[in-house]
Amino acid sequence: MSVVIKKVSTSHELKRFIRFNYEFYKNNPYSVPDLYDDMLGTFSPKRNAAFEFCEADYFLAYDEGGKIIGRVAAIINRRANETWGKKAVRFGWIDFIDDITVSSALIETVKAWGRERGMTTIEGPLGFTDMDAEGMLVEGFDQLSTMATIYNYPYYPEHMVRLGLVKSTDWVEMKIYIPEEIPEKHRRISELISKRYNLHVRKLKSKREIRKTGIAHNIFRLINDAYAPLFGFSRMTERQIDQYVKMYVPVLDLRMVSLVEDAAGELVAVGVSMASLSHALQKAKGRLLPFGWYYLLKALFIKRPKVLDLLLVAVRPDYQGKGVNALLFTDLIPIYQKLGFEYAESNPELEVNEKVQNQWQYFKTEQHKRRRCYHGDL
User: Fold this and answer.
1) Strand 343-345 to 307-315 pairing
2) Range list of β-strands (E), 192-334
């Protein structure tokens, strides 16, 4: 097949770049589309604060008839490269038909783009930062995706191997079933840790409290500290934190947000979860208007699904490995029960992160998905 690669250079082409994924997966029961405006913001240097330290271009693959048959983003995160001592170009938001000529042309385009800018390795799929979806699905193709992840067809990883890319790391995803009662050992650990370190759970009462106290900004600063050792992480800037606070706070159900503080009122840990929006986003088909907003609000506050998403769990480094997570879930489990949830989606967790894996040891779990980051030399 003859493949033509063109850089996205107009707003119309960027729209086609975003919409290609929607059309490519429109009949797939497991793919969950992003909201178009969110994607437009992600790819816009004016709206995405990550462009303070990132550089990116987007490319579309066309066949000889002018039909789009693939897409890819080429990204350099200078902050992550400095943190990890790399000269890596990232590929992200990659989609392609099942033709090695197409996938090869996309990857080679990213490689050439990276070489022009002094990079020596390629890795991905990765976004601008850890707050974007990352990793290529390699197991769990018959499982519904989440709003925090990207679905891909089973042939994608086969192409990566054929193109000579190798595994950098894997993330696993778990179903964590909500128990009828808090596991006794879990409860005892929670009580013990609370007394030993003089910790307490704090519940937020209103969005006004969040705005007035600035606690949401402190949550993201805690994430910066807690996630610093994790694969490819780069610290969020204050502008990024402002961006995420404005994005996420309006849709939170505060009952499903749990904070742990010490005796001085300093934030020690946070757990944030929400009703799954997967089916609602499928119904919205990437659009808030005319009815997309209704599907999302219904899932969040009216007729909740049986599934919830664990968006994040973060513990301050000096309290990690001490059982603080138990306080979070001792608070949250009764709320999950009351709201009628049957299980939680963990979303991607690094397979080598034993601390996060160990927090599920007292629950019934099922590992149902795995996704992979690949790398190769330029």
Assistant:
1) parallel
2) 200-202, 257-261, 267-275, 307-315
DSSP 97-117: -S-HHHHHHHHHHHHHHHHHT
Query: Among the residues of 33-120, which ranges form H helices?
Result: 36-42, 78-84, 100-116
The 10s digit of each residue's pLDDT in 224-272 is 999 999 998 989 999 999 999 888 888 889 999 999 999 999 999 999 9
CB neighbour class for 193 (10 Å; exposed up to 12, middle 13-18, buried from 19): buried
Are 220 and 270 contacting, i.e. CB atoms less than 8 angstroms apart?
A: no
User: Which phi and psi (to 5°) does residue 143 adopt?
Assistant: -115, 140
User: How close are the terminal C-alpha atoms of the chain, in Å?
Assistant: 24
- pLDDT tens digits, one per residue of 182-196: 888 888 999 999 999
State the pairing for strand pair 267-275/136-139.
Answer: unpaired
